[in-house]
């Protein structure tokens, strides 16, 4: 990956974290406290100046109450999952009209349906 691509990915990651923090109505200071990282370091991550480790991303995700995998994909640590499943879960997490508990419950229900339907042919309905 070129240096420009890496810089772009870090900026995108920082923008995404900032957007999630604002959607969660958290100040930079509150998120840094919740994640257990310094305020200046989090600010540098949000501005795309630092490449956070997987552990730091996990701490930020915990503070934002979002999936660490979402941040790993944005950072290029994990490949994006095929299909719309990740997009739907991300859309739920970004919805400003839902509170954190509602978002978590919706994602959990969605994932439970996915697990329940694994191994079934696409489009095959359960007898509900």
Structural commentary:
By secondary structure, the protein is mainly alpha-helical. The protein has one domain: lambda repressor-like DNA-binding domains (434 Repressor (Amino-terminal Domain)), CATH 1.10.260.40. 66% of the residues lie in helices and 0% in strands. The protein is built from seven helices and no strands. The longest helix has 21 residues. It is globular and about 50 Å long. The termini are far apart. The model has no long low-confidence stretch (mean pLDDT 84).
Label this structure with key terms.
mainly alpha, single chain
The structural domain count equals 1
Report the sheet with the most strands, covering strand number, pairing sense and barrel closure: none
- Give the beta-strand count: 0
Overall pLDDT metric? 84
Report how far the terminal alpha carbons are from each other. Answer: 48 Å
- The CATH architecture can be given as Orthogonal Bundle
CATH superfamily: lambda repressor-like DNA-binding domains
Percent strand equals under 5%
